[in-house]
Amino acid sequence: MISGVGQAGFSGIQAGMEGLRQNAAEIAGARREDGSSVRDIAAPLVEQKENLRQVEASAKVFKASDEALKSLIDIMA
Question: Which end of the chain is more exposed for a tag (fewer CB within 10 A), N or C?
Fold first, then answer.
């Protein structure tokens, strides 16, 4: 069960990082060389914040799982 929670945290980190990569690409591609805007970047900026929060929350889940596993090993030893 603990390893499943750790895996869920790791998967959340991966998904959030992929979302951040996509947001960054979308933001970077929104401008022309002359500086004029091709499209609105408000949505990818908001999504970037959401993806960042997902990575942070998933990292906390992963850390908690790791600490629980360490405690379990200490109890068993």
Answer: C
